[in-house]
Amino acid sequence: MSANKIRDKFPQGLLRRIALLTVLALAGISSAGAVDVRVARQYGIAYIPLMIMQDQKLIEKHAERMGITDVKVTWQQFTGGAVMNDALLSGNLDFAVVGPPPFLTMWAKTQGTQNQVVGIASLNTMPMYLMTRNPNIKSVKDFGEKDRIVVSGVKVSTQAVALQMAAAKEWGIKEYDRLDKLTIAMSLADSMAIMLSGKGEVTGDFTVPPFSFREMKAGMRPVIDTFSVLGGPTSTNVIYTTRKYYDANTKMAQAFAAALREAQEAIGRDRPAAAAIYLKLSGDKETVENIVEMLKDPKVEFNTTPRGIMAFAEFMHSTGAIKVKPTSWKDVFVADLHQAPGN
Fold first, then answer.
1. What range defines the domain where residue 192 resides?
2. Residues 50 and 120 occupy one common structural domain
């Protein structure tokens, strides 16, 4: 049965619950007495710090330093934010990772509830690129009715919101959603495969390294990127949890943050080693040399400091996407991060 027929046959909410149950089943049941820590991960070089944490058992290392022994870390692979948030809010996931707009949406939505979410740290800073294979498309104004632009989630993903911000710059805030009708949701690997095939309606792919890197190597061009749209560097992903979990497990959250900082610093010290871990855990067929080349891009940074959060928040509040607007990025992240090195 095709994906479209499955979606037609079953309600979206049911499909999400089925996906969540599948993730939990695959995660397995922890051994009795172990302290469970369940962490989400997605695809691409943006997640190298998490892969280093997994490979080097850094969460376990820093937890033990804080007096927490017998820690069992489960790494759960997700392809999108909806199922991940379901898992987090139901108490079946402890640390989630998404882009700033989906995170801000959850932060605003959960205000005043027992599942209020709070940011732990930024995972990385790197541009997302809207790539095109159509030589006639020079700016977002050139996309027409027959074009399709791939984003990771229609209307709500980082790419979708960045595209709305670009549209607002071109046509005014009242037409911020002018390009939404051209967007479709697809996985990063699938959208790259379609772009490289040269077939179909997809002429734009709002994507991240290594996928944008491969498309550039194939002769495709970036139309815009998130740095240019937001007027400066922005975090690509942030780590977050619920306030309930953080208050009950503050030491574990601090151990997680310490492990993340160690992993981020390790990338700067030894990019080939970081690339090798990425290739081992991701199954990517890219070469170490090409991954290192991507990591050497001066626009690619790995540190805990949130970037560009307020630019997204201001825009999303102006369009009604979020009803509550933070006054500073510090409003949506734990106090520990405010005094962290580099912040």
1. 129-230
2. yes
Q: Is there a cis peptide before residue 272, judged by omega within 30 degrees of 0?
A: no
For residue 320 the two structure tokens come to 């009604």
Of 174, 209, 230, which residue is a domain's last? 230
Q: Kindly give the parts of the chain with pLDDT less than 70.
A: 1-33, 79-81, 340-343
The model's pTM is 0.86
Provide the 10 A C-beta neighbour count for residue 282. 19
3-state secondary structure of 146: coil
Residue 102: count other Cβ atoms within 10 Å of its Cβ: 26
> What is the reported pLDDT for 28?
40
pLDDT tens per residue across span 226-235 = 999 999 999 9
Which of 312, 297, 183 is closest to 238 using CA atoms?
A: 312
The gap from C-alpha 74 to its chain's centroid, in whole angstroms, comes to 19
Cα–Cα distance list, 10 to 5, 18, 25, 82, 192 (Å): 9, 10, 21, 16, 28
Of 181, 196, 230, the residue at which a domain comes to its end is 230
